[in-house]
Amino acid sequence: MRRNLIVPDTPIGPLQGIRVIDLTTVMLGPFCTQILGEMGADVIKIEPPGGDIGRWTGTYKTKGMSSAYLMKGRNKRSVVLDLKKQDAREPLKRLVESADVFVHNIRPQAAARLGIDYQSISAWKPDIVYAAATGYGEDGPFVDKPAYDDLIQGASGLASLFGSVTGTPRYGPTVLADKTTGLFLTYSISMALFHRERTGEGQKIHVPMYEAFVGFVMNEHMQGRMYDPPVGEAGYRRMLTPHRRPFPTSDGYVCVLPYNDKHWGRFFTVAGKPELAKDPRFADQPSRSKNIDALYEIVTEIMAQRTSADWLKALEEADVPVMPMNSPEDLFDCPHLEAVGMFPEVDHPTEGKLRHIKVPVSFSKTPGGYYRHPENLGESTREALSGVGFSDDEIDALIASGAAVLRTD
Fold it and tell me: Which residues lie closer than 8 Å to 404 by C-beta, 6 or more apart?
């Protein structure tokens, strides 16, 4: 049975009382601030008059309220300021003065032109945690190059790794670089808040997408290049065998990963080939690593001889790591995900019934969650500006000048 999500009236989670001024767009930054909001932070999303481009990405029922935005926009207040207008400076300043974190993913030169570089923002709020997530490190020649997920997947070596396996370089079918860097950004902000709690000091954080993702990809792929001089090439062999994939069965696919000596012994026993456990090529971890192509080729031949259901039952009973291969559509019928309430339903005030994704981590004392519906563009402009001391007349003047925009529908 589907679980209906009960939306509490107030923020919950360990970041209660923390205010975040969020100027991020697309995926990287909004994924980070989505998590901060789920953990209880008051996230004020500053959008330009046209809104975050993510509002228009992918499937939507109402213009400006795409499925992508409905996911990343939850637990955020939408405030529209045109930062290219001088009149928007004072509203931004007051919001910053009320905040703990300021985060954006705008290239350094553009950020300086808008007056949102670290020097400007910290002058308004000296103890601010200022986080910039941009494409490349500030000391390198790529500093002002544009960066998008596909570009970083290619430049980082990931697309080439796919090519090593399949013969054709390709990008992963999910925004790996954006979301991974978004996680780097999230933990960096959390650590800086912890430092500020202990010392009272704010600081600047810079999370470069390229370097963050290169570090992510190369963690296991350094291999022979770990040493100076090198003792071999970069690339972890088990990841690069073409046989490392869901194994075809007689009627589908199954994901199986015998990993240690015990797993492999049990697998070969279940497969009716116990002698392979004593084969010198496969008897221990170093030998299996050297002969991974041959090993996985044998597994491919073995797995094709039974049905997926037969393999799942037999390998689970033998305590060999195994899972079914699911499509994204299959996830909505997974008994485990249904039991843990992975896709709760919620009634949105303008978009109707929605299926969301639950916060996957849990805290025994300060659980995070969903407490504010994704807002229409500019829905909280008046509320947020009133909260930092602007009168109704002053807000009306900002709207008349075009420096601020309210929800118009």
Answer: 79, 80, 81, 82, 88, 91, 381, 385, 395, 398
Q: How far apart are CA 356 and CA 69, in angstroms?
A: 12
Instruction: Give SS3 for 403.
Output: coil
Give the H/E segment covering residue 207: strand 203-208
In 3D space, the residue among 130, 39, 10, 22 whose CA is nearest the CA of residue 366 turns out to be 39
Residues 152 and 213 sit within 8 Å (Cβ to Cβ):
yes
Structure tokens, 173? 């079918």
Instruction: Tell me if 155 sits within 8 A of 210, measured CB to CB.
Output: yes
Which residues, at least 6 apart from 107, have a Cβ–Cβ distance to it below 8 Å?
134, 135, 144, 146
Contact between 161 and 221 (Cβ < 8 Å): yes
Residue 133, beta-bridge partner list: 207
The amino acid that residue 351 corresponds to is E
* Tens-digit pLDDT profile for residues 48-103: 999 999 999 999 999 999 999 999 999 999 999 999 999 999 999 999 999 999 99
User: With a threshold of 0.90, does the pTM exceed it?
Assistant: yes
* Token output for 327: 């499509």
Pairing outcome for strands 345-348 and 129-134: unpaired
- Cα(345)–Cα(355) distance, integer angstroms: 4
Cβ-based neighbour number of residue 79 at 10 Å: 27
**Residue 29 in tokens:** 């930054």
Cα separation of 90 and 250, whole Å?
67
Residues of the chain with pLDDT under 50: 1-2
Decide if 255 contacts 324 (C-beta within 8 A).
yes
Let me know: does 255 contact 309? Beta carbons within 8 Å: no
- As given in the structure block, the two tokens for residue 393 are 């007349």
Residue (of 67, 3, 9, 5) closest to 372 by Cα position: 9
Q: Which of helix, strand or coil describes residue 78?
A: strand
Are the C-beta atoms of residues 134 and 208 closer than 8 Å to each other? yes
pLDDT tens for 128-138 read 999 999 999 99
The set of catalytic residues is 178
For residue 352, report the phi and psi dihedrals to the nearest 5 degrees. Answer: 80, -155
Radius of gyration of the chain (CA): 25
SS3 101: strand
Q: How many C-beta neighbours within 10 Å does residue 391 have?
A: 10
Tell me if 254 sits within 8 A of 308, measured CB to CB: yes
> Cα dihedral sign for 202, 203, 209, 212?
negative
State whether the Cα torsion 297-299-302-307 is positive or negative: negative
